[in-house]
Amino acid sequence: MLTKSLTLTEQVARQIAGDIAHGVYPVGAKLPSGRVLAEQYGVSAAVIREVTERLRAQGLVQSRQGSGSVVLARTGAQGFQVPADIAVSREQLASVYELRMELEGGAAALAAERRNAADLEAMARALADLEHHQHHPEHGVEHDIAFHLAIAAATHNPFYQDLLQYLNLQLRLAVSTARANSRQLAGMTDAVHHEHVAVFEAIRDHDAPRARRMAERHLRQAASRLRLDSLFPASRQTS
Questions:
Q1: Which domain holds residue 30?
Q2: 120: exposed, middle or buried (C-beta count within 10 Å: 0-12, 13-18, 19+)?
Q3: What's 160's domain CATH number?
Q4: Cα 8 to the center of its chain, rounded Å
Q5: What does the pLDDT look like over 76-95, one tens digit per residue?
């Protein structure tokens, strides 16, 4: 039975991880399709996508587009993980946003140096979808995350892609909250979109220093919209 103390994603992920640990899904076996899992647990396809990403981040499964998810191990890796309750701890959330500023600033700079036409097309597509949904933040979260992941992909460094994908998916609730807060302030949704465009234009122009600055500024502003900026060290607050 699903309870209200954990998010649906966390509950389903724990149940599937438990099934993997107990051999219900042995190593080398494929998990049921997303549609089957969604019906089995009574959740949406979006929740199952988040569950799959969480299991992948834990090293339990490997996902390949068009071929489903295959079990890699019975127990997850004990490496770096964001706490499951990150969205309710302002101090932890501020720390993760500070980490994102450094990581995504670096990713944007690398993307400016390495991006190709396909990378720019993926970013532009995500931006267009974001603009279309900018006044409906509950629909725009996926496109917001897609834009950041397109930047990570443009680094052509798989470790950047994996780590930033993990962080963005774990912070999905925070992204949703930030966009909802922006919607409540007149003109703020336009400002958020312009922040994204500024990052894109710097990457498009091969301007690595500007891409880094624009990415860091966007995330600093996102943290401010979540009222986290007061929790940063003095140097970060005034930068």
A1: 8-71
A2: middle
A3: 1.20.120.530
A4: 17
A5: 665 666 665 555 577 888 88
